[in-house]
Amino acid sequence: MTARIIDGKTYAEGLRARIAGHVARLQREHGITPGLAVVIVGEDPASKVYVSNKARQTAEVGMFSEKHELPADTSEAELLELIERLNKNDKVHGILVQLPLPGHIDPNKVINVISPDKDVDCFTPASVGKLTIGLPGPVSCTPLGCLMLLRDQLGSLSGLNAVIVGRSNLVGKPMAQLLLRENCTVTIAHSRTRDLPDVVRRADIVVAAVGRPRMIKGDWIKPGATVIDVGINRVPAPEKGEGKTRLVGDVDFDAAAQVAGAITPVPGGVGPMTIACLLANTITTASLINGLTPPKDLTP
Ligand code: NDP
User: Fold this and answer.
1) What's the half-sphere exposure (Cβ side, CA atoms, 13 Å) at 154?
2) How far, in Å, from the CA of 166 to the mean position of ligand 1?
3) Cβ(270) to ligand 1 under 6 A?
4) What is the pLDDT of residues 202-247, one digit of tens each?
């Protein structure tokens, strides 16, 4: 069997087009322009690229976009003060603080100051609580993207065995909540799981969020399973020249694609969905802040 390749790049383009439609409708019917503020502290090159991409894509769908680039020696108090200002700014419906922050700033303190109403990353305890009990609100961006791809591939997920490898607050745990809401039977595996290959072999859906290049082997995959590879790992690529690198996922793609029914590639699978889902969350928060029901196609 050769798996269908799940094209996250094309799906994310379509999603952004739908989001642009929702932005236009909110402006036309309610006079609301959804707005996202992104905040970065310091000079980390990868973070700067992420933040620029987020700000650019926000503007491209017609939203109000605000970028705050602060020097690495910004004090914690100064950052908290900026977030308080953004909490009160009516043009801003979503606040994203790019992590990691410099060592002298406590990320938990910063996250806790973000208004849960504007928490488009779904990091605050209030947002995590809402996700857990199924109240409307923003949903962790990468898991939301994975869910959209899974629904697009499989339709109903009800009754399927889902195995998530990784239990981070960012990916593994919110992914489990979302799949539970879809009536999957969910197993969360982690570094202490016994006989991981055997656990993965039982899965109709595998979500790999580990951060270890090609750790999940082809013979761990149940024939016909749907494999979502969240991992992004940079590995040496001598075939491209000395010192060159390339990105691979947590799944041994070539082997798994021989067995799976469908699989996301890295790059081009889950990655492009994450920013698109950040924009989707901004529509959700802008709707809820204004007493409107968020669009169904952007929420779980
Ligand atoms: P974390 O490092 O926070 O979590 C990794 C998880 O993997 C932990 O729960 C850990 O278990 C588990 N793990 C580590 N080693 C093993 C092992 N040998 N066997 C089983 N489980 C193991 O990572 P994140 O969740 O933040 O990210 C995971 C991957 O996804 C990374 O490659 C990251 O770059 C990528 N990512 C991609 C995004 C995208 O947009 N595509 C967005 C976010 C992340 P334990 O808890 O026991 O330590």
Assistant:
1) 26
2) 5
3) yes
4) 999 999 999 999 999 999 999 999 999 999 999 999 999 999 999 9
